[in-house]
Amino acid sequence: MVPLSELRQAMEDPQFRHAAMVHFPVVLSVAAFGLALIAALFRSWSRIPLAIALLAFIALVVSARMAGVSGDAAEGAVGVIAEEARVALDRHKHLGRPIYLYAIVVTFVTFLGMFNKWKLGLIAPWLSVAGGGFLLLKMASAAHVGGTLVYEYGLGTPNPMTDKQLAIARGEYKEPTPAYDDPRVVYFHERVRPVLYMNCMGCHAASDPAADLDLTTIAGALAGGSRGPSLVPGSPEESLLMRSISWEDEDLFMPPEVELSDADKEVIRQWISDGAVWDYELPAPEEEEADGAPETDDAGE
Ligand code: HEC
User: How far is CA 91 from the centre of its chain?
Assistant: First the structure.
């Protein structure tokens, strides 16, 4: 037996309270339906079963309403949960909330049948049976979704499922790979950027780039200068930037004064052939910033 004090403490939790409370309308909806059925089958016998059914329907109205109120409080206590659980919760609410209203209608019909108002005659108790059956079905589907909330998504337990936990439980979870784990990004920062910074950015910086070529951002490098795009990711041969540092084209030796070391040339070649990965995927810059002057801080002025 659970000690009474523990039970009282558990009842402080709105979700536990709701879970405990919903048992009343669930049981009552079964009982009321059964009683209405007995009343209809043994009609000639007496009106007592129908009277008890009527009481059960009234109790159902009250308890269903209370369950609804406690349900709202329970929902308020729900923290971060999986999106799917949220959808199920809405469905549960949608199914459960109007039950007390349906129960009012069925209670009224049963009341009319009892006193044979409107000359309902023989069909009266069967109307209660039909109404009771309808209530029972509604109650069953609300309870079913409610059960899913508890047993599948852990609502009302100390550890409701989040999207991530749900994915883990289903074996569908993949740890996201942070961009800085990409060896190409590391290569860019450790090898490529220093070469560009030391040898190129002095002249090819955003403020007033030589030949309109801005080598401080990937956008600038891709857009290129007066001769067109300077980078073709994946293809050093087609990249003007590579040709310029190779000192192959008579009219374009870069940097103009001192030729890069073979090691530096190789770094650039390798980088371009690996796709010219520049940086982490940064969020797209704001419109104005994009056509304004981006990233001039490390232009090395
Ligand atoms: C001292 C200044 C200076 C430095 C340093 C420099 N450049 Fe240039 N760069 C220029 C000038 C000036 C031009 C225009 C030359 C021309 O049009 O004949 C140019 C043109 C270019 C072009 C052709 C752009 C086009 O579309 O016309 C490329 C590519 C280029 N530079 C790459 C580089 C790279 C890569 C580095 C570093 C390894 C570098 N530059 C370093 C001054 C510089």
Answer: 16
CA distances from 180 to 82, 136, 176, 259, 269 (A): 28, 57, 12, 31, 21
Please indicate whether residue 230, judged by its CB atom, sits closer than 6 Å to ligand 1: yes
In 3D, which of 154, 151, 57, 61 has the Cα closest to residue 100? 61
Q: Are 222 and 209 in contact (CB under 8 A)?
A: no
Encoded tokens for 183:
């060896």
* pLDDT tens per residue, range 248-287: 877 889 998 889 999 999 999 999 999 898 875 444 444 4
Residue whose token pair is 């009224």: 108
194 lines ligand 1 (CB under 6 A): no
Indicate if ligand 1 lies below 6 Å from the C-beta of 210: yes
Identify whether the C-beta of residue 29 lies closer than 8 Å to the C-beta of residue 136: yes
Main-chain phi, psi angles of 43, to 5 degrees: -60, -45
b/e burial code for range 137-172 (CB count within 10 A of at least 16 → b): ebbeebbebbebbeeebbbbeeebbbeebbeeeeee
121 or 31: which carries more pLDDT confidence? 31
**Which protein residue's CA is at the shortest distance from atom 24 of ligand 1?**
225
**For residue 162, what are its two tokens?**
């989040």
pTM reported for the whole predicted model: 0.51
* pLDDT bracket for residue 102 (50, 70, 90): very high
**Which are the contacts of 253, defined by CB distance < 8 A and separation ≥ 6?**
244, 247, 259
